[in-house]
Amino acid sequence: MSRSAGLRDGLRNNSLSLVFLTLCVLTIIGQAVSGTAQYNNDALTEGLQQVSVWQYLVSSDFAVDVAENWQSEYLQFLLFIVLTVWLVQRGSPESKELDKTGRESDEEQRVAEYSTDTSPAWARVRGWRLTLYSRSLGLAMALIFLGSWFAQSVAGRAAYNEQQLRQLQEPLPWLGYVGSADFWNRTTQNWQSEFLAVGSMAILAVYLRERGSPESKPVGAAHDETGAQG
Fold first, then answer.
1. Residue 42: CB partners within 8 Å, gap ≥ 6?
2. Residues 5 and 87 in one domain
3. The total number of structural domains that make up the chain
4. Which of 134, 135, 142, 228 is 20 to 30 A away from residue 78, measured at CA?
5. Which residue range(s) make up the domain with 66?
6. Number of C-beta neighbours around residue 76 at 10 A
7. Rounded CA separation 85/82 (Å)
């Protein structure tokens, strides 16, 4: 296989993650540019010094906005991954089949003595490695969520206290900010949108279709057919 053919195959085989990574980078750039403009408009109104795009990128204002979005997204994934182990939605491709709730048997999960030659190494042996690997996706999402949420609290406190000092008011310690209305307003306004989006997807996919998408049932599938993918 030629190098160009290998590159094409690599791009095609990883196109989903590459496109979303590119979109992420582009939207961060857009956020940086528009955020700088907004920050400088506010600074001009308050008689403060304006900043460059780079200065805004390393500011607490930018960091808290990014972190609060990231933590809500990864919380959504964490809850969806874990809750769909046990909870079902009749007719949704986002759900397991109605009679397959729970962790499933070792045979169904192809672990230990039921593993194959292509199974990951940690799926082939019993013990702590199998236990850890069996929950590794949820754990990874949980760690990213908690890390992002902590980053939001630190950056949010810095941004909040900067505003407090401008208004000649007392800054808050970290624990004080975590219990503040500003922190929880930032947090819950993101959470509610993520929960609504996931719930809407689970319900709408029962009745609506997107031909060829694995997130949709086949176009001709019955509304009550559960766990099917197109």
1. 48
2. no
3. 2
4. 228
5. 60-101+138-230
6. 19
7. 6
The answer to whether residue 130 is domain-embedded is no
What is the Cα–Cα distance from 188 to 181, expressed in whole angstroms? 10
Could you identify the residue written with the tokens 């990213």? 144
Could you tell me if 131 and 142 are in contact, meaning their C-beta atoms sit under 8 angstroms apart? no
Residue 160 tokens, joined? 């909040």
> How far is the C-alpha of 76 from the C-alpha of 34, rounded, in Å?
26
Q: What are phi and psi of 177, to 5 degrees?
A: -70, -40
Contact 174, 62 (CB under 8 A): no
What confidence tens digit (pLDDT) does each residue in 40-55 have? 998 888 778 899 999 9
Q: For the chain, first and last CA: distance in Å?
A: 31
Rounded to two decimals, the pTM is: 0.88
Q: What is the mean pLDDT of the chain?
A: 92
Same domain, 146 and 78: yes
Q: What are the structure tokens assigned to 220, written together?
A: 């001709």
> Residue 122 gets which letter from DSSP?
G
Query: Tens digits of per-residue pLDDT, 132-167?
Result: 999 999 999 999 999 999 999 999 999 999 889 888
Write the pLDDT tens digit of every residue in 91-111: 999 998 888 899 999 999 999
Using DSSP, state whether 103 is helix, strand or coil: coil
**10: pLDDT strictly greater than 90:** no
* Strand, helix or coil for residue 99: coil
Give Cβ neighbours of residue 179 (< 8 Å, ≥ 6 apart).
Answer: none
Give the whole-angstrom CA distance, residue 80 versus residue 84.
6
110 in a domain, yes or no? no
Identify the CA nearest to 159 among candidates 186, 193, 190: 186
